[in-house]
Amino acid sequence: MAAPAEEAAGSGPGSPSSARRRLSIISGHLRGSPWAPGREGPSPSPCKARGAPAGPASGSIPKKRQELLKWNGWGYNDSKFIFNKKGQAEFTGRRYRLGGMVLPTFKEWIEKTFGASLEHKSTSRASLNVNDVPPSIISEEFLQDLIATKISYSQDAEDRVFRAHGHCLHEIFALREGIFRRIPDIVVWPVCHEDVVKIVELACKHSLCIIPFGGGTSVSSALECPEEEKRTIVSLDTSQMNRILWIDEKNLTACVEAGIVGQDLEKQLAESGFCTGHEPDSMEFSSLGGWVATRASGMKKNIYGNIEDLVIHIKMVTPRGIVEKNCQVPRMSTGPDIHHFIMGSEGTLGVVTEVTVKIRPVPEYQKYGSVVFPNFERGVACLREVAKQRCAPASIRLVDNAQFQFGHALKPQVASIFTSFLDGLKKFYITKFKGFDPNILCVATLLFEGDREKVLQHEKQVYDIATKFGGLAAGEDNGQRGYMLTFVIAYLRDLGLDYYVIGESFETSVPWDRVLDLCRNVKERIVRECKEKGVQFAPFSTCRVTQTYDAGACVYFYFAFNYRGISDPIHVYEQIERAAREEILANGGSLSHHHGVGKLRKRWMKESISDVGLGMLRSVKEYVDPNNIFGNKNLL
Amino acid sequence: MAAPAEEAAGSGPGSPSSARRRLSIISGHLRGSPWAPGREGPSPSPCKARGAPAGPASGSIPKKRQELLKWNGWGYNDSKFIFNKKGQAEFTGRRYRLGGMVLPTFKEWIEKTFGASLEHKSTSRASLNVNDVPPSIISEEFLQDLIATKISYSQDAEDRVFRAHGHCLHEIFALREGIFRRIPDIVVWPVCHEDVVKIVELACKHSLCIIPFGGGTSVSSALECPEEEKRTIVSLDTSQMNRILWIDEKNLTACVEAGIVGQDLEKQLAESGFCTGHEPDSMEFSSLGGWVATRASGMKKNIYGNIEDLVIHIKMVTPRGIVEKNCQVPRMSTGPDIHHFIMGSEGTLGVVTEVTVKIRPVPEYQKYGSVVFPNFERGVACLREVAKQRCAPASIRLVDNAQFQFGHALKPQVASIFTSFLDGLKKFYITKFKGFDPNILCVATLLFEGDREKVLQHEKQVYDIATKFGGLAAGEDNGQRGYMLTFVIAYLRDLGLDYYVIGESFETSVPWDRVLDLCRNVKERIVRECKEKGVQFAPFSTCRVTQTYDAGACVYFYFAFNYRGISDPIHVYEQIERAAREEILANGGSLSHHHGVGKLRKRWMKESISDVGLGMLRSVKEYVDPNNIFGNKNLL
């Protein structure tokens, strides 16, 4: 967008300045490249007035997160699984569809699956004891410089503790025990790109460590502060940097500040009739910047793509300077794609501040569905055929029998909303008439969206394929219920922790011909390892195929066990998870499909991408951030 | 795929060695990671016997390329445009459909478009004068080491000159003038990955410069040898490293050596009923490794994807070591994607030796089509709507009026094969009845492929959209002819050079709302610059939209002019091309959609990807290749 000085000067129609004028008139939203000589472009949007009130009006995540979200568990304060006075499982609050509903068979399922007893309740810290929290250590010089920027900040123990962790089991367990190791010394809330530039400049000047904090939903220990970090740790909370800067209806793109969380992004775009369609299970809390940093994947990637398919332009602030391309085109060949140096960098290189994403018109029609298969093998074969014919719906997921029964146990009581799956004629039909064994059958849930006519055509094609693999259509309700459970499942861990049950999920991607072996071997390995390590009751070890691709699939595992009688349950858990990952790798699976590496999976990086591959990542890190300002120690 | 030593030893079903045994039995083709402790995997395929005869039997590109291909022009020796004894334009040979056909209106078109006269024929060197060629300078120690490897090599002037260039205008012009600057000192022909490892080791040992040579079709000066290079330059010709190592029908992937050229890859896969569907215009000659190195794009990317969508696994040899991931999964989150450090590296980091690509069943049905639009604006609007509805055919391209007339001028005489477009009723219908102005109308060519039923449905949808934009279906023949011309167009430059006409193509990607402005402004800028620089006859300045994406399109320009009366035509050409690129950038276009950067477009790299972005690429180069063994000086 600029012409070098040595070109003919002048302002005639052909001159460089004429070209620039044309561009700035026509395309107000395009940014000139900071690196072009004679740059001329519209000035950056003014920063949001600092006088504006913070809080839910500007976005779903307030600065004082603990006022809305649990300080030592998942999600909203007003939402949790409990056992009511009658001893029935219930989900509280009014935020979710399941809210206020009794789950009549769930208690029995827990007792049967884990040998857990509601008599045995564990204790945990109800609230934070600030005396347990390490003091905030920052220099006076830095504090004065920070105050001069007018950027909002806090040294309160509660704010710092909230941002000291993600949602790995060991992190939540430590919170519940009141154990605080290294935590951030200060939290800052930039509200725009320029604020972030200032913070990074201060970090370079005062030799600080910055750990960017988006949704806080990391499950790779990415947010854990390195214990040996002696510099002041700044938790750079992006949640207040959350505006949609512009929507471009002609190109179907939107430029958005990276602190926006998924639910706000979709809600605000929907006001204009658009969506990104990016719906990771964490979307209530996870941020656009976090998705870019971790290579996130969304439930409906079959239509909308994963984050690397959605992103058109990224702007990132690093200690070395701003990284960004000078155009907003769908695809280019200008050497290795620097967007791919940024995506997956997991907070080790800088802070993503603004992202241009593709948007689509909100689909006119949505339809859920479900299919029962006699066994997991037939279900996988069906998904593979659907992938081969390239006719996958927006979402298609296959759960194994254990997860089917788990899902069934979470069925609420109010029959008018959800059709009881195994009740009455349907149960009879599937088990007696069709001969499906309820302890072997499995279920695929489907979501179609788009033009109504195309959806119905598409639906027919998929169900026809399913029939060839012995599948039986099982209704929209079961499909819808499967997806509805997505956002409440994460609340179960806190319930489990109350009753000595610990659990975690982990995932992988794998070629099609390895799916069945990997699923079977990993689940069996988990059971074996538990036995060897003295776990007294067989674990809950289950999996589902959550995404299909041309050349393979994403497989998601749940693993949970009753740790009564185990003196160091977290250590035992970690050993078993490590064995499970070794088993995954031995069976041709990857280190991660979408959760990322963080610190949790660093030990396998060299094996995964080769010594030279790891060296390439290190060389970029050393160039971009030679003093390790972004010192979360992920990946490398 | 390995278990660390500290895991429980033993050989029971759960042990690490048991996992490895399972894996090696089940998946014979998977390679163990070289970086995992205790690695066990199938041994690499033995290298092709050196006694096997080289030549076309093993692939389309012989070692002695000049026996088949032009040493100073494009393509096959037996195929060229000529003017026959009657002064008519004709295409020689039997290799192409156009072969042996007279093109009755082409001469007139050339004379009218360029003011060229067949009286004025330029001269060029018919054959290479080896005395003009710099001597081959290599050390005796290196030569002895090379002989010991048994890798085939040559110091012949002809072999070295052939690999000293790509197909930029200035490179071909220099060849025709008999000007040789720096050329490779030696050509080597590895036949497998292990050969490449040996060559790179020798280069490190003897301080050589390696320039990988795939198809030799670069149009970014990527293959030009840096004049100041004092070390021995080794042209590492990959054409004999060209086997399909395995086809995996279960995962629909194939592992192929990187020297295979497009036509051979598709031909050999078709024997098993598969294809990659990757069809760049250069596919007769360009190689898989070259596609990876330049981020190639293919005509049918709407179905099959661009190279980054096709690639599952890459193995590259660098001075630092081998780079590769340890699994073959569709998608992972293990930090920044190192495949994207390799793709686009344009021969600056190492040699790609083996690539796993996705394959698809050969489609059952193919159908061409064409649509006439009253003007270019309506055509672009139609393509934009097709992209918005995400219903683009395998290929859809829109040419402007000048290219439509150009294509019409290339119409051969034999009416039974091609329907004459403007003859008879059709011409009357379109121009008189429908009111299309033959000097404004433009044409879109279409290609559909897939299941016959779906193709016909898809076709209807696209033609319905076209009608809304004033488009008129113009028949399959015109579509087919448009695509058939793809492979012969490149031969035109040599004809032009015979008559003082020089020409080049260049391309960009651009957001949808900038397409019309960019097309108009760039074409006008070219015309203006030609006038200012004393070009005596208005240039041929034309464009087409060759690819559609969600957020924009690829635009491809042809630019040619009669340089009679210009003393330094190449210099004038370069100035005009540079101005055209400035105009592209000023209008929001990218530096390149798929041709790459090479040395031709280096000056805009900083502006394109930012100072920090460029620094990241440099940091990777300095780590992977600290002594600049891969010294083609592209990109950075």
TrEMBL record, chains A, B:
<feature type="binding site">
    <location>
        <begin position="346"/>
        <end position="352"/>
    </location>
    <ligand>
        <name>FAD</name>
    </ligand>
</feature>
<feature type="binding site">
    <location>
        <begin position="212"/>
        <end position="218"/>
    </location>
    <ligand>
        <name>FAD</name>
    </ligand>
</feature>
<comment type="function">
    <text>Catalyzes the exchange of the acyl chain in acyl-dihydroxyacetonephosphate (acyl-DHAP) for a long chain fatty alcohol, yielding the first ether linked intermediate, i.e. alkyl-dihydroxyacetonephosphate (alkyl-DHAP), in the pathway of ether lipid biosynthesis.</text>
</comment>
<dbReference type="InterPro" id="IPR006094">
    <property type="entry name" value="Oxid_FAD_bind_N"/>
</dbReference>
<dbReference type="GO" id="GO:0008609">
    <property type="term" value="F:alkylglycerone-phosphate synthase activity"/>
</dbReference>
<comment type="pathway">
    <text>Glycerolipid metabolism; ether lipid biosynthesis.</text>
</comment>
<keyword id="KW-0007">Acetylation</keyword>
<feature type="site" description="Important for enzyme activity">
    <location>
        <position position="397"/>
    </location>
</feature>
<dbReference type="InterPro" id="IPR016171">
    <property type="entry name" value="Vanillyl_alc_oxidase_C-sub2"/>
</dbReference>
<dbReference type="InterPro" id="IPR025650">
    <property type="entry name" value="Alkyl-DHAP_Synthase"/>
</dbReference>
<feature type="domain" description="FAD-binding PCMH-type">
    <location>
        <begin position="180"/>
        <end position="362"/>
    </location>
</feature>
<dbReference type="InterPro" id="IPR036318">
    <property type="entry name" value="FAD-bd_PCMH-like_sf"/>
</dbReference>
<keyword id="KW-0443">Lipid metabolism</keyword>
<keyword id="KW-0285">Flavoprotein</keyword>
<feature type="region of interest" description="Disordered">
    <location>
        <begin position="1"/>
        <end position="62"/>
    </location>
</feature>
<feature type="compositionally biased region" description="Low complexity">
    <location>
        <begin position="1"/>
        <end position="18"/>
    </location>
</feature>
<dbReference type="InterPro" id="IPR004113">
    <property type="entry name" value="FAD-bd_oxidored_4_C"/>
</dbReference>
<keyword id="KW-0274">FAD</keyword>
<dbReference type="InterPro" id="IPR016166">
    <property type="entry name" value="FAD-bd_PCMH"/>
</dbReference>
<dbReference type="GO" id="GO:0005778">
    <property type="term" value="C:peroxisomal membrane"/>
</dbReference>
<comment type="subunit">
    <text>Homodimer.</text>
</comment>
<comment type="similarity">
    <text>Belongs to the FAD-binding oxidoreductase/transferase type 4 family.</text>
</comment>
<comment type="pathway">
    <text>Lipid metabolism.</text>
</comment>
<dbReference type="InterPro" id="IPR016169">
    <property type="entry name" value="FAD-bd_PCMH_sub2"/>
</dbReference>
<dbReference type="InterPro" id="IPR016167">
    <property type="entry name" value="FAD-bd_PCMH_sub1"/>
</dbReference>
<feature type="compositionally biased region" description="Low complexity">
    <location>
        <begin position="51"/>
        <end position="60"/>
    </location>
</feature>
<feature type="active site" description="Proton donor/acceptor">
    <location>
        <position position="556"/>
    </location>
</feature>
<keyword id="KW-0444">Lipid biosynthesis</keyword>
<dbReference type="GO" id="GO:0008611">
    <property type="term" value="P:ether lipid biosynthetic process"/>
</dbReference>
<dbReference type="GO" id="GO:0071949">
    <property type="term" value="F:FAD binding"/>
</dbReference>
<feature type="binding site">
    <location>
        <begin position="294"/>
        <end position="297"/>
    </location>
    <ligand>
        <name>FAD</name>
    </ligand>
</feature>
<keyword id="KW-0472">Membrane</keyword>
<comment type="function">
    <text>Catalyzes the exchange of an acyl for a long-chain alkyl group and the formation of the ether bond in the biosynthesis of ether phospholipids.</text>
</comment>
<protein>
    <recommendedName>
        <fullName>Alkylglycerone-phosphate synthase</fullName>
        <ecNumber>2.5.1.26</ecNumber>
    </recommendedName>
</protein>
<feature type="binding site">
    <location>
        <position position="493"/>
    </location>
    <ligand>
        <name>substrate</name>
    </ligand>
</feature>
<keyword id="KW-0808">Transferase</keyword>
<dbReference type="InterPro" id="IPR016164">
    <property type="entry name" value="FAD-linked_Oxase-like_C"/>
</dbReference>
<keyword id="KW-0809">Transit peptide</keyword>
<dbReference type="Pfam" id="PF01565">
    <property type="entry name" value="FAD_binding_4"/>
</dbReference>
<dbReference type="Pfam" id="PF02913">
    <property type="entry name" value="FAD-oxidase_C"/>
</dbReference>
<keyword id="KW-0597">Phosphoprotein</keyword>
<keyword id="KW-0576">Peroxisome</keyword>
